[in-house]
Amino acid sequence: MNTSVSNPLSQWRKTSLIGKSVGLLSNWYHTSYLLQYSDAIASILICILIILAPFSSTTLIGIILVAIGGFWLLLTLAETNPNQITAIHLWIFFYWLASIISTAFSPLKSASLSGLIKFTLYLLFFALCARVFQKKKFLELITTTYLLISLIVSGYGIRQKFIGVTPLATWTDTSLQTADLTRVYSYLGNPNLLGGYLLPAVAFGLGGLILWKTLPQKALAIVIVVTNSTCIYFTGSRGAWLALVALLFTFLLGLNYWWAEYLSPFWRKWLVPIIVGIFSLFIITAIILVEPLRLRILSIFSWRGDSSNNFRINVWYAVFQMMRDYPITGIGLGNQVFNQIYPLYMKTNFTALSSYSIFLEIPIETGIIGISLFMGILVSTFKKAITKIQIFKTENQAMGIWIIASLAALVGLATQGVFDTVWFRPQINTLWWLLIGVIASNVRVMDN
């Protein structure tokens, strides 16, 4: 099955200036010793980013992203395979164009340009991932690298829980009984950021548990899932908790479809409800018996009774006013723009660095145009994932499990994004585009 976008796009590539530049150096590609190992080099660059991201400054991450973007540009100019663009690529391209328009109409153009450059680097990272993940061995190399690094990060986070770490008032409502709750943050410096960073590791760990063949590998997968899930719990991040539940439910639905033909009619109908019921009973029991968990969960429903909830509500109110004044193209990209415009709308004593929801931050930055195209990316990615899962199941290719894991992780990150904007931090944003890259990569080549 050809998953690339055909005829109209092919004609555009042959006639447009940008399209003609693709493959400009194709003759050099065949004679270059270096480019014969282009996918391996690209994989190494991606692995370097994954290894350093939790422990490095955003500046260093940015430098690596520049290198990745430059290498993708080189490969594109030397392109020999023209059928790599999918509907997901097109939606992302138009979203990027909307970001350029937003920057052009931004009241703070220079600050927005800085945000646009950062955003462009993330998209180039996606483009390289989608190219590299066409080959199974590089997908497994990169995901395994991330899983091993996640063990280091979550292991240190769990250690913080037992040796103690200074609670910070900015993360815990000092007026509540949970004021002394230890919220771990490992090397990332923020418990919400840590929770989001570990979510894909749980999904890929479950994928490894199914796909890895030897007993030591399966034991490692269990350790990865349990350690990362435990650390997510210790973050005390309610958004990450909800995201983990959404992730597990999505993964369960995927497996139910994947193994449906091996189930009896009874289990095909009742397996998901039974598992969900058992899991719900476990959660309810834990809430009843574990006081810190109970207090933290109940705080979700306290509306303005919790300082974190109250803070977000006041920020969201100001954000809606900003959206009213900049409805079409938004205020421009990046936290620098937000930090300068938000004070004009905020309530006293409710300063904020973001809107605390990616589904508010995106329309604030890029307006109705931007959020519409972003939703197009989500829908296109979901449709592509479902299609690929169906294809892999039909062809009995276990790679479909990685697609299920990627989709589950995306659902988890999007769920956390409803209540937080750690999604915009490079440690998570790179993982988001990596996950989309897994789904957008060419179906047939992935089997090679």
TrEMBL record:
It is found in: Membrane. It is a multi-pass membrane protein. It comes from the Bacteria. Its main location: membrane. Coiled coil: none annotated. Keywords: Membrane, Transmembrane, Transmembrane helix. Residues 224-375 form the O-antigen ligase-related domain. The chain crosses the membrane at residues 34-53, 85-105, 111-133, 138-158, 194-212, 219-235, 241-259, 271-290, 356-379, 400-419, 431-447. NCBIfam families: 2A73 (TIGR00947). This is Bicarbonate transporter, IctB family. It comes from Cyanobacterium stanieri LEGE 03274. The gene is ictB.
